[in-house]
Amino acid sequence: MGYYRAGFDVVGVDIKPQPRYPFEFYQGDAMTWPLDGFDVVHASPPCQAYSILQKQNKRAYPDLIQQVRTHITCADVEYIIENVKGAPLRNPVMLCGTMFPNLRVIRHRMFEASFPLDVLEHKRHPLVFTYDKRKFHYGKLDQDTSFVQVTGGGNCTIHNARRALGIHWMNKKELNESIPPVYTEYIGKQLIQHLRHAIASTQSTK
Hints:
The chain is an alpha/beta fold. The protein has a single domain, classed as Rossmann fold (3-Layer(aba) Sandwich). Helix content is 28%, strand content 13%. It is built from six helices and six strands. It has helices spanning 2-6, 52-56, 65-74, 158-165, 172-176, 181-204, and strands spanning 11-14, 24-27, 40-43, 78-83, 93-95, 109-113. The longest helix is centred in the C-terminal third of the chain and has 24 residues, at 181-204. The radius of gyration is 18 Å and the shape is globular. It starts with a helix and ends with a helix. The mean pLDDT is 91.
């Protein structure tokens, strides 16, 4: 959605059905999907192999970032690879909900890009609404206005989870694994400028 708002036509590919995906969608293996005709590829490989919480479970999860990077770079297109902290990304830029005024969720995500990305100030994290009576700020925050936690356990209504992330079309499970559209809109706007500059540079040398 963020790339669409930034000005791109968006096509989604996933190995699983995504009935609520709001754009053109194909069910298939992104690891082998032909990339001819695309100007940009955004990839979000499974993050469980790099998640701190999942590592504590000592289960084996797929580590696909290098394979994804190889598949994309062979297509010679601009790209973005998104994942969690700890993932083996190259010179990633981190985005956090505190960097954007309309978000109410702390969701750190790392972005490796084939083009330069501006780094935003990482602001101090605010208190997050909680039902945990052991927390000193229990009962002091309103989940309708404060930052909330949108994870598997969660601590807020689905209505507030959607508002906190700026996503109105996903169910709870999808929200748990999502990134706020403003993240990719922020990246997409920079990418548009990068592509325009590249086109202008090519035309000036002809």
